[in-house]
C-alpha cells in the first residue's frame, strides 16, 4: 500500500512543483540568515521577519490595491524589524539569540495585536486574484510535460529567489564586498584594522536578511496562501535557519537543504492515503534536519566570530 | 609606604551594608530597568494604536496598566489565577535557567514540557486504577524522565556531535508537538472526541491549594470560605520544592560549581579536569526534567485535566520561560518573581479587550520588549557617560559564553605588583581595560 | 620628579617629525592609560617605544592607529595636525601597524588578507584575484619578502605570517610602520632576518616605531628610544648614547637585577618520567613524536623552543588535559630522598593528575586558569573542588573550608582584595596571577609545571615568580618550566631540553650559548644550514 502511493507521488509533476515552491519559500529567509551569520551576527529572527512581511504585505496590498506595493511594504517591514535586531546586536551588544527570539515574539505579538485593530475585529478575507502574486507561464516551455509545470509554471517569486541565490553566491565568493563580509564574520578585529567598516558590513547583512525574509513573507501570504492567518509562518523561519547550517553556510548548500526540506514538506500531505498520520509525517523535515546535523553533515563550521559582538575599542 | 593590610580590612558593618546594597543593585537593577523600559514602550505602542485625541490615548494606556495590575493582583481570586498561571512558568523558567548556568541556551523547554505532559497523561490514563498516592508521584516522575530524555538528547548531540543546542532544540520541539499530537489523536484519543484525551481521573490530579488547606491545616485553623474560587493548585508547592532543589544544586554542590565553570569559561573547565560533555548531558537532562514537570503540573493541576493536541504548539510556556529565566537572572527567587510578572500579564491580558478595547496580544509585545531590554547590554553603551563609581560592577555578563569568549589577550596585561616595590595595589582595577591602575598620588 | 636621565635630542628644524603625538591623555574607568604622553619620531628612523606591560605603549599606538580615541591631545603626521577616528583614517595617512597578535584571517588566502579593505578595483568590483596576485608578487619582490599569495594563512608559519602583515602595510602604501612586539614569536635567526628587513625598509624611506620590552633588541636595531612608565613619559634617549641598564632603570624606576640569583641545584631521584610520548593536535595531526624526559626532584628542567613546536600539547598531555596516543607518563613521590613506587598517570584526566600531586600554572592564565566572573573562593579550588577538604564526598561544597582556604591563599601570597568573596574580575591582573600561583603552590605538589609563567608580567613581578620557582626547586619539587623566553630558560633551568617539531632534539646545559640553542630550536643539528 505504502510504496505504490509513494511511487505515484514521486513521479507526479504536482509533487515536484510544490516541493520547489516550498524550497523557494525557505530559500529566501535562508539566504538572508546566511548573510547575517556570515557577517558574524546570529540570526534566529527569520520566523518573525517573515511573519511581519506576510502581514504588512497583505495589509499594504489591500490598502493600496496593488500587490507590488504590498510586496514592497513587506520587504521594507522585514528590513525595519531586522534593523532592530541589528541595532540591538551590533550597537548594544545584546545576546543575539535572545534578540532573535524577542524579534519573533514581537512579530507574533504585533501582528496579532494589530490585526483586530486594523480590521475592526473582522479579520482578513481571502485575497482577490488581482492582489495575489502571479504564477508565471513560460509560453511553450510551460507545456513540456512534467518539466513544464515543475520549472516553468511557478510563482514569480520562485524565479526571483533563484536569481537572488545566484547573486548571493557570486557576491559572497567573487566580489570585494563578499571578501569583506567573510572577513568580518571570521575576524572582525582584523577586518577593522585593515580598514573595513565592521559595523556597516554587519548592518547591511542583517538588514538584508530582513529584506529577504520580508519578501518570503509576502510570497507566503500574497503568493501561496492568498490570505493572512495568525502565526502563519508556523516555524518555517526556523527551518530556514536549519537549512543554513545544514548547507554549511554556503548559498548553494543552503539551497540544497531547502530543496530537501521542500520535498519533505510536499511529501507529507500526499502520503495521507497510505494511512500514515499527517502528524507523524509532519515530523519528517525536523527529523531529517536532526539526522543531517548528527550524521551526514558532521560538525558544521560556523564563521569564527558568529555571535560575538565587536567592540572596536576593546583593546 | 602603605601597609598592605590596611587595604584589606575594612570595618565590617559598613562593608556588609555596602555589599548588600551592591548585591541588591546587581540583582534587581537590570531586571527592573528592563521591565520599566518594556512597560514604557508598551504604553507608547498603545498610545499610537488607540484612536482618539492624545489625552484619550494616554488615558487608555494608563488604564491598560491599571487593568493589568488589577486583573492580576487586584483581588485574592485574581492572585490565585496569577499563581496558577505562574506555576508552570516557574518550572519551565528553572529549566531554561539551569541550562543557562552551563552556558547552554535551552530553547527546547516547549518540547520537553510537551513530552512531559504527554507521558504524565499516558501514565494517568493507563494506570488510572492505581491509588492517588502512588499514581501522582508516578506521573510526576514519568514527566521528569520523559522531559529529561528529550532534553538529554540535545545534550548528547551537543556533547558528542557538536550540534548547536538551539537548532537541535527547535527541531525536537516540533517533533514533540507532532508526535504528541499524533498520540492524542491516535492511540489515546477519547471516545467520540477528535482532538483530546480523556480527562485525568480525580485521583490523578493535583488538588487545589485552597481545598488542600481546608482538608489539612484548615481542620484546626480557620477554613477558607468558598475554596472553589481559588484555582491555584498544590503544584505551586511542588514548584517551591523545585526552586529549593535548584538553589541547592546550583549554589551548594560541586555539580553546580562545575556548571558555573563550564558556563563562564569552558577553557577553565578543561584546565580543571571538569568533564564538559558529561555535565552538558546531565544539565540538559535536569533542564528537561524541570520542563517535564511544568507540563505534568499544568495537566494535573488545572482544568480541563486533559491533553489537547492543538494546544501543544500554541502553548507559549516554553518560550515565555526564556524571558522568565533571563529576567530572573537564573536565580530561583528571580525566576519566581519573573514568573509572577509573566503569569500576571497572561492572566490579565485577555480581559483588556473588553475593558479598554486594547487587544490582549499587547502582553506578547511587552514580553518581547522585556526580552529585548534584558538582552541589551546597556552598561557598555552608557558607561562612557557615567561617573566611574557607577560603572564598576562585579556582575557576570548576562550571557556567559558569548560575551566572555572575547580574546582576553592584551587587555588583561598582568601587572603583578612586586611585593618589594612597595607600590600600593589598587583592588578595583576595571576588568574592561585591565590596565595598570595608576595610583593617584606621586611616588614617594 | 622623575629621576631618570633625560637627554635632549638635537632638533633639526628643517624636517618635521614623521609622527608627533602631543600631550596625549586617555583614561579608562579607574585607570589612566596615557597621562599627557609625548612622542616624537623622526622621519626615516627606527624608534623604540619601551616600557613594562601596562605602561601604555599599546594604548598610545592604538591611539595613533585610530583604534582608541584619546580624551585629549594632538597627533601630527609629517608636521600636520590630523584627526584619526579609525584605522581607515590611519591607513589614509600612511600609517601601518603590525599588532602583537596578528590581524590575519586564517581561512582566507595571503592575497585576500593583504588586499582586504583596499581591494583592487574598489569596493563595488568583483574580486580581481589575478591583479591582487600580481600586485603582491611585485611588492614582495621589491622588498625582498617572498610569499605565495595563494596559500591560506592557517598553513603559514609564524614568521611567514609576520611577513604577510608587513606586506599588508606596504600594500597600503604605509610610510610609518608600527610594530608591536614583533619578535616575541620569532627564533633568534628569524629575528635577525626581520631586522635585516627593517633596516632595508628604513633605507627605502620608511619610518618605524618598534614596541618592545627586550632591551637587547632596542640597542641593536633602533635609533631613538621613548620610555614609558605607568602611562607617563620617563625618558627620551638616543640609542647610541645609552645602555641597557639605563633603559631598564627608566622603565622600572629603580635598579633591576637582570640575572636570577640561585644556588646550584641539588637534584634528587627522578620524579616525573616521560617515555616515548605521542599525541595529536586539535587538528588530529601528530604533534608529539616519542618525547622522553626525566625530571628530578629538586631541579628545574627548562623546555626551550619556538612556540608551536608541541610545547603546548606536551603540557596538556602531562597535565591530563589531552589524551596521549602513545607512550607512558609516571610520577613518583619522594620520601627521605628516596623515590616511592612510580604511579602511572598516562591516562588520568586533569583531575586525577592533580590528585597524584601535580600542579599546573597554565600559559594563558586569565583564559584558562581562572573563571573571571566568579569569586576568589570559587577560583581558589578550581581543579581541586572535589577534594575531600572542599566537598563532602565530592558532591556538596564545604563552604567554610573553602572560605578559610581562600583566605589562607590571600594572606600568604598577599593577594590584594577587599574580600575573598569578591569576583575575580575586580582584582588587578597581577593579583589574579598571584592567586593562581598561590593555588598551585599551596597544594604542595610533587611536580610543578609552569608554562610561560612570566608572560605578560612586568619586570618586578618576574623577579617574584622566578624566586618562587627556585624556592620550589630548593624545596625538593620537580619543576618543569616551559617558556618561549630564552633568557628565562637559560637563567632558571638546571638542564634545558629543546623542542622542535614535536621532538626533544637535545638536552643541554644552561651554559649553552644562545646561538647553539637557536640552532637546536630550528632543528639545525639534524639539518645544518
TrEMBL record, chain A:
Membrane topology listed for this record: Multi-pass membrane protein
InterPro entries for the chain: ABC_transp_permease
Segments crossing the lipid bilayer: 15-35, 42-62, 68-88, 100-117, 156-173, 203-227, 239-264, 276-297
Broad class of where this protein is predominantly found: membrane
Subcellular location: Cell membrane
GO molecular function: transmembrane transporter activity
Swiss-Prot/TrEMBL keywords: Cell membrane, Membrane, Transmembrane, Transmembrane helix
UniProt entry tagged with the keyword Hydrolase: no
Gene Ontology annotations for the cellular component aspect, listed alphabetically: plasma membrane
Protein name: Sugar ABC transporter permease
Source organism (scientific name): Dictyobacter vulcani
Lineage: Bacteria, Bacillati, Chloroflexota, Ktedonobacteria, Ktedonobacterales
TrEMBL record, chain B:
Span of the signal peptide: none
Localisation: Cell membrane
TM region positions: 31-52, 83-103, 109-131, 138-160, 166-184, 230-249, 280-300, 321-342
Keyword Transmembrane helix carried by entry: yes
InterPro entries according to UniProt: ABC_transp_permease
Keywords, alphabetical: Cell membrane, Membrane, Transmembrane, Transmembrane helix
UniProt biased composition (Basic and acidic residues): 421-434
Main location: membrane
Stretch list, region Disordered: 402-444
GO MF annotations in UniProt: transmembrane transporter activity
Membrane topology: Multi-pass membrane protein
Domain of life, source organism: Bacteria
Keyword field contains Repeat: no
Pfam families membership: BPD_transp_2
Protein's name according to its UniProt entry: ABC transporter permease
Organism: Dictyobacter vulcani
TrEMBL record, chain C:
A GO molecular function held by the record: ATP hydrolysis activity
Keyword annotations: ATP-binding, Cell membrane, Membrane, Nucleotide-binding, Repeat, Translocase, Transport
UniProt-annotated location(s): Cell membrane
Main location: membrane
Cited InterPro entries: AAA+_ATPase, ABC_carbohydrate_import_ATPase, ABC_transporter-like_ATP-bd, ABC_transporter-like_CS, P-loop_NTPase
Membrane topology label: Peripheral membrane protein
Pfam families, sorted: ABC_tran (PF00005)
Gene Ontology, cellular component aspect: plasma membrane
Highest taxon listed in the record's lineage: Bacteria
All copies of domain ABC transporter, residue ranges: 19-255, 272-526
Protein name: Sugar ABC transporter ATP-binding protein
Phylogenetic classification of the source organism: Bacteria, Bacillati, Chloroflexota, Ktedonobacteria, Ktedonobacterales
